[in-house]
Structures are given as structure tokens and as C-alpha cells.
Amino acid sequence: MKIELSAADLRPVIEEIAAEVVARVGHVAKDQRLAFDEGEAARLIGVAKHVLRDCRLRGEIQAARVGKKNLYRREDLAAFLAKRIGNR
């Protein structure tokens, strides 16, 4: 069975998923931190820490180096995930 969907058919689904992810990332931290270390950020978006690190090294997501840690902004995580979902 082959299912064919156009970009117009997929757009509402992708936008709904992206909105859910943004809401999830926005409500996870009760202290409303602006940034998360690599392990926390990976857990928030549901990937392994090494996957997020590799994406950072390829330039797919930005992180700020603070001391010995790479910190990821909440907004960057949401945008990264929305973009990844949209590219499938």
C-alpha cells in the first residue's frame, strides 16, 4: 500500500506537532530557565545526548559555550525540533 500526501496535506499535521513540542519545551522547566545543558536539552526533545552533540557539531543547532558546558536556548530547541519534523 502506498500513501501519497502533498505538502499542503502534511502542513497542518506538522504545524500541530510543532506547536505541541513548543508547548512541551516551554512548560518542562518549572524554574523557567532560558537554557539547558546538553543532557537536559537532549531529554527535552527526546533524543540521546550524542545525537544532539552531533547536530551541534554539524551546525544544525547552536549552543553557547559557558565554562565547560554547552547550553541550548529553549527557543533554539523548539525551532530545531520543528525544522526536523518538517523535513521528514
Short structural description:
The chain is an alpha+beta fold. The chain contains 4 helices and 3 strands; from the N terminus they run αβααββα.
Account of the protein in words:
Strand 2 (64-66) and strand 3 form a beta hairpin. A three-stranded antiparallel β-sheet has the order 1-3-2. The chain is elongated and about 50 Å long. It has a single domain (7-86), classed as Multidrug-efflux Transporter Regulator, Chain: A, Domain 2. It is built from four helices and three strands. With 88 residues, it is α+β, with helices and mostly antiparallel strands.
Number of helices in the DSSP assignment = 4
Identify low-pLDDT runs. none
Give the overall form: elongated
From the 3D structure, determine the CATH topology: Multidrug-efflux Transporter Regulator, Chain: A, Domain 2
CATH architecture: Orthogonal Bundle
Radius of gyration from the CA trace?
Answer: 15 Å
Distance between the termini: 19 Å
Assembly status? single chain
Total domain modules: 1
In this structure, how is the largest beta sheet organized? Answer: 3 strands, antiparallel
Helix/strand-derived category reads: alpha+beta
Helix content: 55-70%
Within the largest sheet, what's the order of strands? 1-3-2
Under CATH at level 1, the class stands as Mainly Alpha
Beta-strand content: 5-15%
The number of distinct β-strands equals 3
For the residues shown, what is the average pLDDT? 86
